[in-house]
Amino acid sequence: QEVFVKVYTNLSKFSFKSSFGTWITKIAYNSAVNSVTRRKEYLPLANEELIQAKDLSPEEEEMKRVTLKTIRECVASLPENYGLCVEMYFFHGLKHDEISEITGFPVNTIKSYIFRAKKLLAENLRGVVYEQ
């Protein structure tokens, strides 16, 4: 609701230099950063639980739940900027230039963060698989 109000009250400031969706996402991002700074509460990643898979057995449902939990934990263990870029790129489908516009990071920095994050995630997830 807070983001909607900010978009509505600042609609006259939209300058058509970017897509409307990117502009709204930047407002949402800035609101989230401010909120996190104030509350220190944040559940990363898109809400995957809302996606319903059809015809999954109880075992498959449990595997899906455990996998999602493990991925969330691994992404949460990344350095903050890595996790932020990974989430926007993979879970929200944003392009490098859109992430750059939202976060203010240079495009090449975002590419580097995502590359390094993928390496760290692979190492962390490999360790989880071998432990079980």
Outline the structure in words.
- This protein is 70% helix and 0% strand.
- With 132 residues, it is mainly alpha-helical.
- It has one domain: Arc Repressor Mutant, subunit A (Orthogonal Bundle), CATH 1.10.10.10.
- α3 crosses α6 and α5 crosses α6.
- It is globular, with a radius of gyration of 17 Å.
- The protein starts with a helix and ends with a helix.
- About 4% of the residues have low confidence.
Write the layout of secondary structure elements.
Layout: H1 2-9, H2 20-39, H3 58-76, H4 80-91, H5 96-103, H6 107-131
Helix pairs in contact: 1-2, 2-5, 3-6, 4-6, 5-6
N-to-C SSE series?
HHHHHH
Helix content: 55-70%
Number of helices: 6
Assign an overall shape. Answer: globular
Q: How many structural domains in the coordinates?
A: 1
Task: Report the radius of gyration as a whole number of Å.
Answer: 17 Å
Low-pLDDT stretches: 39-43
Query: Architecture in CATH?
Result: Orthogonal Bundle
Task: Give the tally of β-strands.
Answer: 0
Overall pLDDT score: 80
CATH superfamily: Winged helix-like DNA-binding domain superfamily/Winged helix DNA-binding domain
Structure at a glance:
The protein is mainly α and 132 residues long.
